[in-house]
Amino acid sequence: MAPRCNPQFLNLKLSLRLLAVLNMMWHSSVTEVAAQIQLTGEVGGNVTFRCPVAKPTPIKLFYLQKGQVFVNGYYASKNIEDKAWENTKLDRNKTTVHMNSLNISHSGDYQCHIISDSHTQPATVIHLTVTASYSKPKATMDCRDGLSCTVTCASHGYPGDKMMWNVTGSQKDESWKVVNRSEMNDPYTMMVNSSSTANFNCSNGELKFSCFVGDVTSNMFSVCTPLDPEELKDNVIVAAMCAVVVISFIMVILLLCWKCRKGQKGAAAVDVRQEMGVNGWEEEVISLNEQEGGEEAS
């Protein structure tokens, strides 16, 4: 004869199964609400934090925090003493915060803390990523000796990315080479200044290049370009005029030096003549004195 089932035992078993099912449903709900939400924005732009509510019940408290720092929020029955961020605006009686004037420092994890009439729901994490499109790369060139050129391309944006080159006009590897590349963070804006410097060998003729970082490309530039005849003629005329000015200046200096030396020689000759004149007069006086002395003796 089969044993009869105890009603209390059956009720306990059903209760345990129901509790297990409810527990699984609760964990599923918490996982869905507490899952991390990804949010992106641009430097200088705006984003909106929309914190999900597990149940459509009146909200008693809503906090948006970054770590332990209060961003914005409200109490349903009283004012919040914490000061909200100046670049945020709250939708009252909602769980939505608008943030403007974004910068790189706003990136990070934010937590939504919500208490309703029925329960306190687990905190929802919203990760904000703030980026900055790179500026159009600018190129500076230095071609002093006519045999080579040094070119630097620079841009700024976020996050860090390398400056790259696109060179056309020569298939030779020795026509150009990258000699320096850097990605440096600005301590104030946290933006990345990306730059690269390359040397171009002008013995292989004219080259064309552009620089790019991320998805932003510079204009196409020419380097080691030969001078056109008119420009070459102008350069020759300018060089000739400079030579004339330099030669004239040297001749003036030499003429002044010659006059100075001539004046010094003339002054010396006058001094000699004056000295000779004085000495001759003295010799004549002495000769006359000697003659008078001789006559008196005789």
Task: Summarize the structure in short.
Helices cover 33% and strands 36% of the residues. By secondary structure, it is an alpha+beta fold. The radius of gyration is 48 Å and the shape is elongated.
How are the SSEs ordered, and which strands pair?
Layout: H1 7-34, E1 37-42, E2 47-50, E3 59-66, E4 69-75, E5 88-91, E6 96-99, E7 108-116, E8 120-131, E9 138-142, E10 148-157, E11 164-168, E12 176-185, E13 192-201, E14 207-213, E15 216-217, E16 221-223, H2 229-297
Parallel strand pairs: 1-8
Antiparallel strand pairs: 2-6, 3-4, 3-7, 5-6, 7-8, 9-10, 10-13, 11-14, 12-13, 14-15, 14-16
Shape descriptor reads elongated
Beta-strand segment tally: 16
For the record, give the distance between the C-alpha atoms at the N and C termini, rounded to a whole number: 201 Å
Element string (H = helix, E = strand): HEEEEEEEEEEEEEEEEH
Q: Low-confidence parts lasting 5 or more residues at pLDDT below 50?
A: 1-5, 9-33
Q: Helix count, per DSSP? A: 2
Helix and strand content put the structural class at alpha+beta
Averaged pLDDT: 79
Characterize the largest beta sheet: strand count, sense, and whether it forms a barrel.
5 strands, mixed
Q: Trace the largest sheet across and list its strands.
A: 1-8-7-3-4
How large is the share of residues in beta strands? 35-45%
| Rg result | 48 Å
